[in-house]
Amino acid sequence: MCDTCGCGDSSIVPVEIHENILADNDRVAGHNREHFAAASVTAINVMGSPGSGKTALLEATARVLSCRYGKDAPRLSALSGDLATDNDAVRLCNAGIDSRSITTGSACHLDARMVHDALHDSSGLNWQGSGYLFIENVGNLVCPAIYDLGQTANVICLAVTEGEDKPLKYPVMFRKADLVVLTKTDLESHLPGFDIAELEDALARVMPAPRMIRVAALAEDGVDPWIDWLDALPSGAGAVR
Amino acid sequence: MHEYSIVQALLAQVTAEARNHGATAVRRVEISIGELAGVEPDLLETAFEYFRERTICTKAELVSRRIAAAWACRVCGRERRQQSYLRCERCARPFDLVRGDEIILDKIDMEVPDV
Q1: How far apart are CA B73 and CA B100, in angstroms?
Q2: Beta carbons of A77 and A132 less than 8 angstroms apart
Q3: To pair with B63 at 20 to 30 A between CA atoms, which of A26, A41, A232, B27?
């Protein structure tokens, strides 16, 4: 500050903002949603723990859709979020799903911009020509929950081996779910303590509209109700809820 | 740990606002975090201390306000009891989350040179 006129002085100015910190992500998610609607693609955000059976569910989906509809089966595409490998995308390609990896490095979740960049940059990925675009999120029951990607629906894969109380331990994630797919149900006979009623009770405490489908992907048991659920989704439209 | 990503988004937002107001420094940043937002305020503060270095927020304090989750029936207005089912016993419809998932930048105290 100068002694003559006080120039250089400063004041503390309070500025009210009241804006979502993730507003930029939500703006890009809205943009993704416009892309999906324009291409009539239904985008599904598939979340769950590492090893919960997300990739196996999608592989079984491709097989059963092909059996059910033959050459009229909807084309499938996928983006697989992975910290370090493209293993899941390779598996999905081998199952007939046009797939690319989003390598996140150290990031524990996908965000709307990563998905947007992948939609434009994934060389040769024909997601616009598919009926469903599965966005297989990074295996994690915490971080992916808070990022809108522009999807039509959120699906959580939960393996029977993970325990009935997982919804109570991760309420933020399960609150966002439109559907829980209980996977690896063919292992139930090896888990004498597993109590499906306890799991249903937990879901009813954290999901406003609890919905669960039981699937054994490798045995292709329960895949039909899952496909019926997909078929009932509004094509290329905004979020279910 | 997504708190690092959130802090980076927060710093970008605060920096843009500070520039718009011709500020030379930010003294205090106030945010609100809902109980069901999926964000840990303690981790957020740790991340903020790390990432504020060499930004306009170098000397800024981060103050977070926790907002408890509240659910209510859209039809009858009945509020959900703690840990109970997310369905109204009277109307048999799902409760709506009234508050508790916010991740909001509320207010910035910034140092602006006098004209």
Answers
A1: 15
A2: yes
A3: A26
In chain B, residues 88-107 whose CB comes closer than 8 Å to chain A: 94-97, 102-107
Q: Which residue has the higher pLDDT, A7 or A15?
A: A15
pLDDT digits (tens, 9 = 90+) for B88-98: 989 999 999 99
Q: Considering only the C-alpha atoms of chain A, give the largest distance between any 2 of them, rounded to a whole number of Å.
A: 87
CATH number among 3.40.50.150, 3.30.2320.50, 3.40.50.970, 3.30.1330.30, domain B3-68+100-111: 3.30.2320.50
Topology (CATH) of A23-231: Rossmann fold (3.40.50)
Q: How far apart are CA B110 and CA B19, in angstroms?
A: 10
Return d(Cα B64, Cα B58) in angstroms, integer: 17
CB contact under 8 A, A7 and B114: yes
Contact by Cβ (8 Å): A55, A183? no
Partners of residue B61 in chain A, C-beta under 8 Å: none
B21: nearest CB among A15, A107, A207: A15
Q: Choose the closest CB to A17 out of B9, B38, B107.
A: B107
Q: For A29-80, what is each residue's pLDDT tens digit?
A: 999 999 999 999 999 999 999 999 999 999 999 999 999 999 999 999 999 9
**ipTM of the shown complex:** 0.91
pLDDT number for residue B83: 75
Q: Which tens digit of pLDDT belongs to each residue from A164-195?
A: 999 999 999 999 999 999 999 999 999 999 99
Instruction: Answer yes or no: do B2 and A108 touch at CB < 8 A.
Output: yes
Q: What are the residue ranges spanned by the domains of chain B?
A: 3-68+100-111
Compute φ and ψ for A45, nearest 5 degrees.
-90, 110
| Cβ <8 Å between B97 and A15 | no
Q: Given an 8 Å threshold on Cβ–Cβ distance, is A19 in contact with B105? A: yes
